[in-house]
Amino acid sequence: MEGIDHRMVSVNGITMHIAEKGPKDGSLVLLLHGFPDLWYTWRHQISGLASLGYRAVAPDLRGYGDSDAPESFSEYTCLNVVGDLVALLDSVAGDQEKVFLVGHDWGAIIGWYLCLFRPEKIKGFACLSVPYRPRNPKVKPVEGFKAVFGDDYYICRFQEPGKIEEEIACADPRRVLRDIFTGRALGPPILPKDNPFGANPNPNGENIELPEWFSKEDLDFYVSKFDKTGFTGGLNYYRAMDLSWEVTAPWTGAKIYVPVKFITGDFDMVYTTPGIKEYIHGGGFAANVPNLQEIAVIEDAGHFVNQEKPQEVTAHINDFFTKLQDNY
């Protein structure tokens, strides 16, 4: 992408790749991607925010893209990943004691942890897709998902090291990535063991019409990176969920007090999972995030709302941060 700078930064014992753009004295915005994603998911927001005077910084999180990928899933707990981000901010934020934060999917989850552990570093959090849910002290996450959604729920299917990687390879990684980014399946993702990624009517993966917002060049970029790294790094976040649950016992019942704006698409798989709309709009979310200032549901948008509706999302982010900026 034109005008976006790239460099490697040493953080927390690993080397992290970051993409950045914008004036050095601009208010820093840290943008966190999810699964199976990269800094590239923010390509539109990086340029858009930079044009508005912000300094946008988007890393490849550990395990992804051009950043280091520790082998063991035990190195992907929330403490490991938030440790990376604290070190990154110490390296790139200069004299800015507080920064703006944006997160999508797993980046949203990590963003919640960053707000929970180090709220003094965050001016405001624009959260995409995944609302904050407090730690349940009575049940580990994977066990809880299995009880509600069954053994074939995607998070449960991701737990066995190497298993889903083999299934992705058999199904063709290009097709799997294409379907994840452009699919519009509603509700909790289920991956049946006998045919997890559905039938493939076009084994060569070519001549498939892509939506206007996701080009062949976009798909090529993702495929080139995941061909190099594989998917294990990203999957390790799911495999470390129970470990993160164990190490966060001291934060049981904790609320998030950072100013928050929540943004989602009306066709998002998380938003359309049973019980989530009621939680978001019915008061439960606001009770756990007392400084939840706005909820924006973008029409005709799926899970990757930041890519599908880039101008709307950038406008929502800027509007929220502009209001907060007036308080600093």
Automatic annotation (TrEMBL):
Alphabetical list of Pfam families matching this protein: Abhydrolase_1
InterPro entries attached to this UniProt entry: AB_hydrolase_1, AB_hydrolase_fold, Epox_hydrolase-like
Ranges for domain AB hydrolase-1: 28-130
Enzyme nomenclature, EC number: 3.3.2.10
Pathway terms, separated by semicolons: Secondary metabolite biosynthesis; terpenoid biosynthesis
Keywords: Hydrolase
UniProt enzyme class: hydrolase
Catalytic reaction list: an epoxide + H2O = an ethanediol; (24S)-24,25-epoxycucurbitadienol + H2O = (24R)-24,25-dihydroxycucurbitadienol
A molecular function GO annotation: epoxide hydrolase activity
Family label: Belongs to the AB hydrolase superfamily. Epoxide hydrolase family.
Described function: Epoxide hydrolase involved in the biosynthesis of cucurbitacin and mogroside tetracyclic triterpene natural products (e.g. siamenoside I and mogrosides IV, V and VI). Cucurbitacins have cytotoxic properties and exhibit deterrent taste as a defense barrier against herbivores. Mogrosides are nonsugar highly oxygenated compounds used as high-intensity zero-calorie sweeteners; they also possess pharmacological properties such as regulating immunity, lowering blood sugar and lipid levels, protecting the liver, and acting as antioxidants and antitumor agents.
Protein's name in the database: soluble epoxide hydrolase
Origin species: Microthlaspi erraticum
